Structure formats: structure tokens, C-alpha cells
Amino acid sequence: MVREAVFLMTWAYKDKPEMTAQLAEEYTLAGNNNNVLVIPAGLSFAKADRQAIRPGVLSTGQETSDPVGTYLAACTTYCGDIQEVNRSETPLPRHRC
């Protein structure tokens, strides 16, 4: 499947977790308005942070992530793309993400 664009939903600043809901809403609106897939990396960060033994470990600063956060964003992107392909007519096995 060839895609012209994908939006990667970013994550909230470390000291502003309330940004998560705002970012999710705006990215969802933008994706719907432009018929573009939105990869919910920001929601993955928020969920991982809530479940973490040491909350906040995914963010080293205001706008960047550490290698674990980069890996989480990559996994979220992969799962979003696989799920989108599985919705198409391409016969691929289902992946659990």
C-alpha cells in the first residue's frame, strides 16, 4: 500500500501530561479532515508512563525521548501501519499490537 502522508501524534511535555488529550484531539481532527492515518505515539507514551515502574522515564526533556521512547514510537508506528494494511484487501496475517 502506498501512502502519501501519515501523522505521528507526538507526546506531551514531561511536566504537562494534560497535553496528551489536547494533542490526541487535534491530531485526530487533522487526520480525519485530511483522510490521513494518525499513529498514536503520544497515547502510547501516556499509557506506558502510567504503567511504568518509574514514571517519566520515557522523556528526557520537553520535546525529546530517550532510546526506550524512540523504540516505543517505532513499535506504535509499525503496529499502526500493519493494522491499516490488514484493513485493506492484502491477505496478511493479523498481528497483535
Give your account of this protein's structure.
This protein has 97 residues and is mostly helical. The protein has one domain (6-87). Helix content is 49%, strand content 6%. The protein contains 3 helices and 2 strands. The chain has helices at 19-34, 41-51, 67-87, and strands spanning 6-8, 37-39. The protein has a two-stranded parallel sheet with strand order 1-2. Helix 2 packs across helix 3 (67-87). The model is unreliable at 91-95 (pLDDT under 50).
Summarize this structure briefly.
The chain is mainly alpha-helical and 97 residues long. It has one domain (6-87).
Question: What's the topology here?
Answer:
Elements: E1 6-8, H1 19-34, E2 37-39, H2 41-51, H3 67-87
Parallel strand pairs: 1-2
Helix pairs in contact: 2-3
Keywords:
97 residues, 2 strands, globular
Strand order of the largest sheet: 1-2
Shape: globular
- Record field, number of beta strands: 2
Number of structural domains: 1
Order of helices and strands: EHEHH
Strand fraction equals 5-15%
Summing up helix and strand content along with how strands pair, one would put the structural category as: mainly alpha
Distance between the first and last residues' Cα: 19 Å
Biggest beta sheet summary? 2 strands, parallel
Mean pLDDT: 76
**Over all CA atoms, what is the radius of gyration?**
14 Å
Number of helices: 3
Uncertain residue segments:
91-95
Helix content: 40-55%
